[in-house]
Design goal:
The chain is an alpha+beta fold. It has seven helices and eleven strands.
Length: 208
């Protein structure tokens, strides 16, 4: 660790640490509306996924106003098999709320960059540490608020944090773009294969 890097607890560098809430009534409570309700299945270390994303109405959202998602919030799954998975929710999803299986970590931007916090938490060593912490003495894996508040983070200067997060974010964007391109090319290849070797379109065209 460089001499100008410091160690802080998350409670010292976050303005909010806490889990969300779920509207009463289970799945039947997802009545639809303009507010997304982020759940653990949406949170992955590789990034946010809209698969399984549900929506609630304005009245329900008002009842969950204390778990409102803000831009640049970092989220970590705190219960179940997906415990420790972590990401940031894209602004396009807002306005949104978060359920009780996910915790909000809101970085204090005077000390901590949100992107750096996310990359710190998904690093292999930290993921192993958090997973071990979540397994201690419980029948179900869980991270508590106190565990997160007391969890230590190694901090470079704020400028270094932003630089690190930017570089890693740029790589992530390129990886995502390559995956999208590969998926498109795979679709084209499958269509050509079907046309040539299943539907025999070239043969039909020649005979016509």
């Amino acid at each position: 660790m460089k001499s100008n890097w410091t160690i802080k607890t998350l409670s010292e560098v976050c303005t909010k640490i806490g889990s969300g809430q779920t509207p009463r009534g289970g799945k039947e409570s997802y009545k639809g509306g303009r507010f997304a309700l982020v759940r653990s299945q949406n949170i992955h270390n590789q990034g946010f996924t809209e698969n399984g994303l549900v929506y609630i109405n304005d009245l329900q959202a008002d009842q969950l106003s204390n778990v409102e998602i803000q831009s640049n919030d970092v989220f970590i799954n705190i219960t179940g098999h997906s415990v420790t998975r972590c990401c940031m929710v894209p602004d396009e999803i807002l306005p949104a709320r978060v359920n009780q299986h996910v915790a909000i970590l809101r970085a204090d931007n005077k000390f901590l960059d949100s992107g750096f916090l996310r990359y710190f938490l998904i690093s292999p060593k930290i993921q192993r540490t958090l997973l071990s912490l979540s397994s201690g003495g419980a029948t179900r894996k869980a991270l508590t608020k106190s565990m997160l508040e007391s969890f230590e983070i190694v901090l470079p200067t704020l400028l270094e944090q932003k630089t690190i997060a930017h570089i890693l974010g740029t790589f992530d964007q390129k990886i995502a773009l390559n995956k999208k391109t590969n998926k498109t090319l795979e679709g084209i290849a499958k269509s050509l294969f079907k046309s040539w070797f299943i539907d025999f379109d070239p043969v039909k065209a020649k005979s016509e």
